[in-house]
Amino acid sequence: MPEQRVIAKRYALREPLDAGGMGQVWRAKDLLLGRDVAVKVILDDLTARPDAAAVEERFRREARVTAQLHHPNIPRVYDADLDTTADRMFMVMELVQGDSLKKVIRNSGSVPPVWAVCLALHVCAALDHAHDVPVVHRDIKPANIMIAVDGTVKVLDFGIAMLLGADAPTRLTKSHQFIGSPHYMAPEQFEAGHIAPQADLYAVGVILHELLAGQPPFDGGNPVNLMYAHVLEQPAPLRRTRVDVDPRLEQLVLDLLAKRADERPSSARHVMDELLGHLPDQHPGYISFTGLPTLIVPPMPLPTPYADDLYPSESSDRSQAVLGPEQAVGPSDRLRVAQGMFEAGQLGAALPVYEALADELGLLGAQAADDARTCRIQAARCRIALGQHQRALGDLQRELAQLRIHRTPTDTVVLEVRLHLGLLLRDVHRFSEAAQELGLLYNDLVNRYGPGSALVDQVREALIGIRRRPPGGDSI
Description:
By secondary structure, the chain is an alpha+beta fold. The protein has helices spanning about 50-65, 100-110, 115-130, 185-190, 200-215, 225-230, 245-255, 270-275, 320-325, 330-345, 345-360, 370-385, 390-405, 410-425, 430-450, 455-465; strands at about 5, 10-20, 25-30, 35-40, 75-80, 90-95, 100, 135, 145-150, 155, 160-165, 285, 295. Strand 5 (about 75-80) and strand 6 form a beta hairpin.
């Protein structure tokens, strides 16, 4: 592939960044928007391979699965062309500039426990979101974890991810074919057993062990020996080689490496709760050591708002239960708290506050109608980011229907809701409806703000992406 190749008349490929079994990732320039992006292009010689059809479908799955994920620790998908012609298939993603965890381990060996804990918090935050969609990554390993120059951590490569539930696609692997990286695979992946989110948590345990001990818990020299080690052998406790590791952290790693999936922590959120206890009470918001990339301490969401223990009794004020008694202040103050949580990415914590405020303000009638509507819209945005797409879709459709009774199509709030609704219709693959909604919105935005506004550019890009979709892609 020659340098400076321009694909889709838009993306100029500058330099190769990485290559894998399906495709090559390039640093590229988006000539339309003038920004740097990462472009993953399916391998040129793919059509000559006997498994070409399966790899093509896996490439499509990676693009579609990753596009459903909206989280600060997962690179965004901007665009894709999933045409059946192999050399035209590509996807455009957020460019992550930094170092891979694989490179950090190779250069540094073992790391301070607090650095390992902070990194694992980032990874678990990404997995908590993915598992809620629900998607299991199945290939968590240092090569798929990037530490960006701003101190955030990104989980990459959902190429072999698996959707859970009734809508999961047919498996693309043959019976008895291992999928994953043997050093980081859970026992059930070798045994072709049921794959659940706990398989990803096992990989987190392997990575934590490697970061703290300087080597993975198992190293059999070849895939077969590794398989037997993961399935049959017990890992060595960390404190045999690292006396500075807290016994509780050692136990957490052992729990993550349990042979049976049901003996591991129940969720990525549970692991995050355990890891939080190993951060210093006072920290400047980042973790820094000589020779290691600086990590920001990720904002931690409060416990899931659907847990029964958040609501001690049916008469409890839900927003007070979430915020704590000392923070149970007036509606305007709680709205500011919710907005702060939203802007900090603490969406799981912001959602129940918005919902409680919407209910409370709704009882006050016309005088609080605008604030109640704002809370409902913000709650829907939280649900979109948390992967609760169908619920958010219904909420936005009801909100828009009510707004259209009393306001014009170009009212600021109406335009906002139309934008969220159109993009969500696209994300759930209801492309025809999305194109209709966004097409009308595009015209109204141009008439109100002019053709050069950022909102017009955003809607234009969404429409271009919809037009490039594979035929027959609408969901029912």
